[in-house]
Amino acid sequence: MYELALKRGTEWLAIGGLRPTRQRVALASLLVGDGEDRHVTAESLFAASTKSGEGVSLATVYNTLRAFCEAGLMQEVVVDGSKSYFDTRMDDHPHFYWEDTCELTDAPVDQLEITRLPDLPAGTEIAKVDVVIRLRKV
């Protein structure tokens, strides 16, 4: 299983045109090694890398996540203007943010309908529309 995770991580880096350094391969393997999509924070990925025995600093995790985003391998989802989650699923889709657990999960894209957006200021274009639906248990 570990070899398959390393292979998937290395192939994922190649898709983004990134050099497969030891740290990048280790983090990529944690993110995509099992073939599942992930929503991680830098801190949660750092904890997973520490648990797996990889010697990767938190600063390296932050820098690597930014490099993955710049390479088009992940997208950043900002919650509350300061909390960043990194998503390996790259298609346009909404998210649920669970306030009680501070967890970000995918919401059903087929149930979301945006029928109209506000008029844009002159000289601008939409770069992206993020939909984060905040939830709390009742």
TrEMBL record:
Cellular component terms per the entry's GO annotation: cytoplasm
GO BP terms: namely: negative regulation of DNA-templated transcription; regulation of secondary metabolite biosynthetic process
Q: Which Gene3D superfamilies match?
A: Winged helix-like DNA-binding domain superfamily/Winged helix DNA-binding domain (1.10.10.10)
Q: Which InterPro entries match?
A: FUR (IPR002481), WH-like_DNA-bd_sf (IPR036388), WH_DNA-bd_sf (IPR036390)
Give the UniProt subcellular location, in the record's own words. Answer: Cytoplasm
List keywords of the entry alphabetically. Cytoplasm, DNA-binding, Iron, Metal-binding, Repressor, Transcription, Transcription regulation, Zinc
Per the UniProt record, one Pfam family is FUR
Q: Name one GO molecular function term.
A: DNA-binding transcription factor activity
In terms of one coarse class, where is the protein primarily found?
cytoplasm
Family designation? Belongs to the Fur family.
The protein's assembly and partners: Homodimer.
- Its recorded name reads Ferric uptake regulation protein
